[in-house]
Structures are given as C-alpha cells and as structure tokens.
C-alpha cells in the first residue's frame, strides 16, 4: 500500500517581473500514517515551500510542477474550493508563529469552534463549544475554559501554540503539517510542545510532516529524515541512519555545525560560504559544489541523483568522502 | 546515543549551593546588585551581580523575559539601573560623563542581535565601520585602510565595503557588526544574541570567527544567548538567569555536567539531543 | 567619509548594483517644480506687459482677447503677466518658510530625540504650546504684528510650520532610537553629533523631505490666504493669493478670470506633492537597487 502523502518531483518557482526564484527544484518524499517525517534544512532550502505546496497555499505567482497525492488523490489539480475543504479536515497546519494564524480580535475558543463549523464537524453551537474545550484540554491547555475565553495576546507563546495545535487537529486530520512549530518558543516550552506532538500523533494516529532547521528536533522526533538543500533533497532515510551515519557531505556538515560538548572552542566543523540563491542556475550539477571540500569535476557536470545507501535511505552524493563526524578534525573547517 | 550529554544531568546536585562567586579584584567589569523595575512595578532585573575578568567569555543564559537583555543594557549604560552599580575598568559607569565616558565606552562595544537591524540600512557596510572609527577620532585619511583591514579580519571581502546591509546575508551582516565593534580595539564586547538568528552552518562560521578574534585580541566577551549548547561551546563561565535573577553561576562545563539549580537542570533537559 | 572602493569584478555573481530608473513621480514632480522656478526666474525676460500697469479702457477683458491671452483684471492689468510675475512671490512664500522650518524643525526634533529626557520634555512642551494655537490664526497674528509684506508673511508661515516638522522628526528619532544599530552606536561611545550626522539624518531624511514637499503645497495655499487677507504682498505687486482676492468680486461676471489664479495655486500645490511622493520612492534604498 502506498504512503498517505506522496510528493513526487515537486517543483515550485515564484516569478516577480523578469526574475524567477526556484524555491523547490524537484523534491520527492512521502509521509505515512503513524510516522513522523522531518524535513530538515536551513533557510532558503525550500522546506517550508514544500510544506505549503501540500496545502496549496503558495499564492498566485507560484508555478508548481510535479505531483502531490494524499491517499492516492492528486491535490495539485484541485480547485480552490475543493482544496479548502481538505485543508483543516484532511490536512492540519501548525504554523511557526501562532500569533499570525490566530485572529487577534476574536477569542480563541470561538476560533476553534469556527473551524469545526466550517467543516460541519458539529452542528450545534453548544456541541462545538464543548468539543473546542475538549480539544484544548487534549492539547494540554490548563484551564481550557479560561483560555477559550481569552484573546490571543493574553496568552503566552507556548499556550498560543497549543491553541493552534488544538485548532489544527480539530477535525481529526490524517496529515498534520508543522512548519517550524517551536522555533519562536523558549527551550523549555519547545520541549513541552514537542512532547505534545508525540502524544497527539500516538493518540490520533496521524502522519506528521515536521519542518525544522534544528537537528536536535529532528533527532528527537523523526522516524524518517529528509534533508533539503537549495530546493532539492540531498539525503533521506531512517532518522537513526541519516543523523548518525550521514551519507551526504551537507548532512554531515549540518550535524557538525551544532555546538556540543567535546568540541574545542572555535573548532566547529562546517561549510564555508553560503547556499546558492533561489535565482541561481544550478541545473545539472550539485548545488553544494562551491562549498564542498570533496567535490570532484563530475559534481559540476552531472545532476545529483538520489542513490540507495547500504544502511537505509538514499543520498545524492556519488563521491566517496570521509565522514567528518566519524573522524573529527577531518571535516572542512571554516575560519 | 540520544542520551549522550544528558546522562550527566541526572547527577545529584552538589551538596552545597555555590554562592555567586566574588568578583576578583582584577575584574574588568563587575556589576553588583543591579535592579530594574518595569513601570508597572514588576522587577525585570532583581539584584543581579556579574563579573568578567580580562579576556574571559561569560555566557549569560536565560529564556525570554529572564532579564538578560535588560541586564546587558544596564551594563552598557543604555538603561539606568534602579539600584546597583557597574564598575568597568575601575570606573563607576554611572558617574563618568562627557569625553571621559566616550573614551570608556570605546573600550566597551556591543554586537546586537538581529541581522536586519544591527547595521544602519542607509549606510554601506564600509560606512558602518567608518562611523565607529570617526566617532573615536580616527583620522579621516586612515579610515579606508582600517575599514578594509577590519573587513578582511572578519572574513568579508574588503571589496564589499560599498554594499548595503540588505544586499548581504545575515552571517555577513553579523560579521560586519563584529568588525565595527572591534574597530575601537575594545576590552569587552557584549554580544546580545549575536548568532541566534543565523542558520546553524552560518552560526558555526561566526562562532569560529568570534573564538579566533577573542583568542587573537584577548578581548573579553559577555555572550548573551538563550542557547545553552552555544554557550557551553564558546564561554568560560556561565550565569543562568530566570525571572530577573541569576539562579546559577560558575564554570561552564561544571554547570553543564553538574547543574545545581533545578531550573538549570530543566533548561538542560529541554535541549534536544545534540548527537 | 567611508571607504568606497569599486567592487572588483566577481566570478560568482555580479556585484554591481544596477541603479533603477528614478521613479516616474520624481521625474514628473521635479520637472513641474523646475518649470515653476523657471517661470519665476524668467518673468522679467518674457515679452509681457507690465503687470502693475492698468488700462481702465480695457478692464475685465475675457480670456482669449487679442494681446491679453488670459484677459485683464478689474484695473485692466494683464492677467497672464500678473500670474507669471506672481509666481515669484508665491513660490517664495511656499518654499522659503518650509526650508526654514525644515532646518529648525529637524534641529529641534533631533535635539529632543537624542538629548536628555529633560531636554526632550522642554522641547515637546514648547511644541505643544505652539500646537495649541490654530495655526492659521497664529500665522495671521504673527503676520499682522510684523506688518504686511512678503518677509513677514514668510516669517509667520515658518513659525507655524516648525512644530509640525519637529513633531515628525521627534517621532522618527524615537523609532530609530530603539533600533539595534543606534543602541550599538550609543553604547559604543559615539557622541551625539556623530550619531545625528551618520545614523539619524540619513534615516529621517526620507520622511522629512516627503513631509516638507507636501508642506510646500500647503504653504503656497496658506500664503495665498494671508495675501488674500491683505497681510501678504502689498497691492501693486502680483501674488496669486492677492489675485484671488482681487478677482473674487467678479466671480459671477467673469468666472473664468477668477478661477485662473486659483488654478495656478492648485497646480503648484500638486507639483510639490508629486515631487514629495517621488522623493519618498527614491529614498527607499531597498527598492532603489535590485536585490
């Protein structure tokens, strides 16, 4: 049986005047029920755009190619009305900044009830109110009654994110997309929200597509990790394999850039330079070339293709290279 | 392996709570009993004492609202403390005025947080550094060469001096902010979440740069961050703040491996596994 | 000044910043204002009848009359000539007070915004007092006490514009003050003249110049109003406001004639407003360069 969400060779380009920004340059990934797929990448990698493409929230000047299927049904061909019926009901979204997704002028309980009304989950006002309170308490909100009567600005960032999560799972979606859901939160609150995601996924049996830049979050949450760079997938596979035995220099560099005990001060291994901009022309070659210490001539001439890795998953790097994580000091040093 | 670095955290607390260490007489900066209340009466900073030795990196860690930025502003004399005093290089900052204050402040520089606002959007990056040089009396003729040298020192091509901040990446902007701070040969740099907004691979570059600059110049750094892992990497000592108070202070590795305060332990256990 | 070496040729991506064409509004506004200025400057050279010389035999000729394309006024003076000559006084009345007010207002605003709390409070209270008077009444009072004439009119207008400019500057500086680079500059020991020169002025110039160019339009109208009340330019001299006053008695008998000076005021006002909008777009650094 095929996975719940299948993204196949997705491309997204934004045009503004004569300029075209290639945000996503051919991404294939899947997310399955009961599992957490983490899309890991830095800013500009196209990870958020990929998530938004699933929801059909890219705006009018986006050109989308490839295919996105949910339960076998292609989403890209759907019109706005059919798509909005699926948003919220089949696919829930937890944004990075709950402040932006909650209406500042309405009480949060009413906003959850509104989601329920729009998707006709409950037909009476009282039943919707009751369910909203239930959802808030399921999302770990203390005193759901009081919180439901609050306006967003009266709540802390962590509580707002819990409200946003309650709204996202209100209609029992099959797929929950979380776009950097803890980036704006304090560390201690982040830990609580991530635990909430884990619990909800267990209880509701959803597929979770979690977008993050944080390797630690990926380590904590992921069953499968998809690493993106410059709009492409450079490596994917079981979380333990990808994060412990990376098969792509970029993944390795990302892991090595994380400060942690044992690394002498000022000796973080990383990559020099910057990722290519979305307007850069990188067709037919590996986007990491100018930054990669292991690049050979072929890297600039051949399109990087995902090839299976022995220990699971696949990576888009045919060059044999020493693993800087396994051999500290062998990695590329930045100055 | 996900438990690596976390096992130690379960170590039972040391039996005696370490009192805030007394500032050595040789301290470059010592802040004692700093207090600041918001207009509504809530204490933003409540009796905070810190010190920094010459050439030392002190991490100041806390979550939003812990008072760490307010503390930094009082140290930089951007905010007047309600109580307490700040002694920098042997002088009480609150009592110094005029030219003497400016000279003292040249030795105490700030690297701000946001790549979007740490540089003036209407000055080129060369002008941003030239400003600080001119403000501290560098002769006009010597400025271009100094600007080029400083840019080169932080790994920005001197040829980029004519570019505007919005044309640069976040990492480049923070490098320029570092160059600007270094332009007065300071003895203390306050980095207020200076790498927090950067991507990890860029953050690693800037942290390496900061470490190298610190090593070469011997400048002391007050490194304010919410990220304990970054502080563990870069700092010698750490002070953990919560609700306007320093709850724990000490050698960074000791605090990391054997935190005494329950809040520090909670903070450490919240860090996702680092690998 | 800063180092501004030419960027070296780069292999990766072009470093040159192609300057965008100036905004259309800037070009249009600048051309219109230039045309007005030229009209004022060239008035003595143009083959026009003496604007002060009346010919009672040919009074109130309609526009389009031979020799008098815009007609003549109640004393038989050529209206076109009076409009052209009037540009001088009217432009002066519009531009000089604004120029004076923008310098004084910026100075006050920057001092208030960067100075100690006590300085800021003192400046703000003085501005509040000035604001408490209805500005037009204040201008009339000042102009009346100084006696009629172009100079006293300009002085009166400048006084009432200073608090308006200063208020804009104070708001802008207060916003800037909290930004990281200002904090870094203050904490880093830069003296306030340096901060004002390098950080404040470049950042408030867009707002101030836009606001001031809009004020020029307002000022032309106010100046016309003062002349209309007899507090501006003395009668034989041409000024648009005085012309409106003069011709309004014929608004029913020769309506087209009465409208002409009003139209001139309107055109000048629009020109400066367009220039202001163009300046606003031009000052937007981020759109000036391609990114």
From TrEMBL, chain A:
Protein origin, superkingdom? Bacteria
Which residue intervals define the domain ABC transporter in the entry? 5-255
Cellular localisation = Cell membrane
One Pfam family this sequence matches: oligo_HPY
Q: Name one GO molecular function term.
A: ATP binding
Topology relative to the membrane, per the entry?
Peripheral membrane protein
Q: Which CDD domains match?
A: ABC_NikE_OppD_transporters (cd03257)
**Key words of the record:** ATP-binding, Cell membrane, Membrane, Nucleotide-binding, Transport
Protein's UniProt keywords contain Membrane: yes
Major subcellular site: membrane
PANTHER family referenced in this protein's UniProt entry, alphabetically: DIPEPTIDE TRANSPORT ATP-BINDING PROTEIN DPPD, OLIGOPEPTIDE TRANSPORT ATP-BINDING PROTEIN APPD
Q: What is the protein name given in its UniProt record?
A: ABC transporter ATP-binding protein
From TrEMBL, chain C:
List, alphabetically, the CDD domains matched.
Answer: TM_PBP2
Membrane-spanning parts? 23-46, 91-114, 126-144, 150-170, 207-230, 250-276
| Region Disordered, annotated ranges | 1-23
> Is Transmembrane helix included in the keywords of this UniProt record?
yes
Task: Recite the UniProt keywords alphabetically.
Answer: Cell membrane, Membrane, Transmembrane, Transmembrane helix, Transport
Please state every residue range assigned to the domain named ABC transmembrane type-1. Answer: 87-276
Start-end of Pro residues biased regions: 1-11
Q: Membrane topology for this entry?
A: Multi-pass membrane protein
The listed locations are: Cell membrane
* Record flagged with keyword Transport: yes
Task: Tell me the Pfam families matching this sequence.
Answer: BPD_transp_1
Q: Which family does it belong to?
A: Belongs to the binding-protein-dependent transport system permease family.
Protein name, UniProt field: ABC transporter permease
